[in-house]
Design a protein that fits this description.
By secondary structure, this protein is mainly alpha-helical. The protein has helices at about 45-65, 70-95, 100-140, 145-170, 185-210, 225-250, 255-280, 295-319, and strands at about 15, 25, 175-180, 180-185, 215-220, 220-225. The protein has one domain (about 45-319). Helix 5 runs antiparallel to helix 6 (about 225-250).
Length: about 325
């Protein structure tokens, strides 16, 4: 998870400040944008807090994988349940009648089924969760039915189903690997490399966006995301993933770079998809649980979309 908050052009963008000094995806585009080639000063954010919290979260994830991988399952269950609760609550504020607590419980269960049951468990858990939504909604009457069930299904697919691929990565491959001097299971190494690549993508995009961002990439979704920032994301992720995969698993540099490019593009797509959802719902962040970052879902957006991409790539590279 990235230690940097969502930022100006090219970073994970939030165009207007809220009451805590952070920026929000749901604000309207700047009515008086700076001319191309000249940026106005960005409103201040509490970067030390955001970076400190991000590093703390990264340390917790790293410790869970290094010390006892089953602890990572517990951490994932909590994160997914909270993300489902946040997203379901946002759906309710947006007028969709979805069952928040059952969605959170289903999300945690799907993660467990993916951990112990592999791909079959993941698919079965998601299918049962969606079916349960249909049954639950029968008691609520016809009004809003065709909108409420898809909204709840979106939560299950966007959060626990995609998170399940992280579980598949963590349990897919037997054996051991050495990662930066630490010996750990191959599955845990795959998860850490994926997370490291996402962090590099976020950091590269943020930095390039701040320094060079001029050309808007998605003005109707995330107005301050720039093409220069996307280039920074791709370069940072490609370089870092290429080198790390070569050092840890002996993967050729071109294949490692290709992994990094795909991960950066998927991370950007994940960020944009959640930004689009928040803009549609008219909210700034999914919640305010994490100081300087918003909610858990605001931190998982990129990771969730990268997970299936990384799962396919590692299956090809190490299979």
């Amino acid at each position: 998870m990235s230690a940097l908050p969502d930022g100006p052009p090219g970073g994970r963008s939030h165009p207007s400040p809220d009451g805590e000094g952070r920026h929000s995806d749901t604000a309207e585009p700047d009515p008086d944008p700076a001319p191309e080639g000249r940026r106005r000063p960005s409103p201040g954010r509490n970067l030390p807090v955001a970076i400190g919290v991000g590093l703390g979260l990264a340390a917790v994830v790293l410790a869970s994988l290094l010390i006892r991988p089953i602890a990572f399952l517990g951490l994932a269950m909590i994160a997914v349940a909270v993300a489902c609760w946040e997203t379901g609550s946002a759906m309710r504020r947006g007028g969709r009648n979805v069952p928040v607590i059952p969605l959170a419980a289903a999300g945690a269960l799907i993660v467990v089924l993916a951990w112990y049951g592999g791909a079959t468990g993941l698919l079965l858990g998601t299918a049962v969760g969606v079916a349960a939504l249909f049954v639950w909604r029968l008691a609520e009457g016809a009004t809003g039915y065709r909108a409420d069930v898809p909204a709840g299904s979106l939560v299950l697919v966007q959060v626990p189903f995609l998170a399940g691929f992280v579980m598949l990565l963590a349990t897919s491959t037997a054996g051991e690997a050495e990662l930066f001097g630490f010996g750990l299971e191959t599955g845990a190494a795959q998860v850490l490399i994926m997370l490291f690549t996402v962090v590099l993508s976020d950091t590269g995009g943020y930095t390039a966006g701040v320094l060079f961002g001029r050309h808007q990439m998605t003005p109707k979704i995330s107005p301050k995301k720039s093409w220069e920032g996307l280039a920074g994301s791709v370069v940072a992720a490609a370089a870092g993933a290429g080198l790390t995969l070569w050092l840890v698993f002996g993967v050729s540099l071109p294949m490692g770079v290709a992994f990094g490019v795909c991960a950066a593009l998927a991370a950007t797509l994940g960020d944009l998809s959640v930004s689009l959802l928040k803009r549609d719902l008219g909210i700034k962040d999914m919640s305010n649980l994490i100081p300087g970052h918003g909610g858990v879902m605001d931190r998982l957006d990129s990771i969730l979309m990268v997970a299936p991409v990384a799962y396919v790539w590692f299956g090809y590279l190490l299979g």
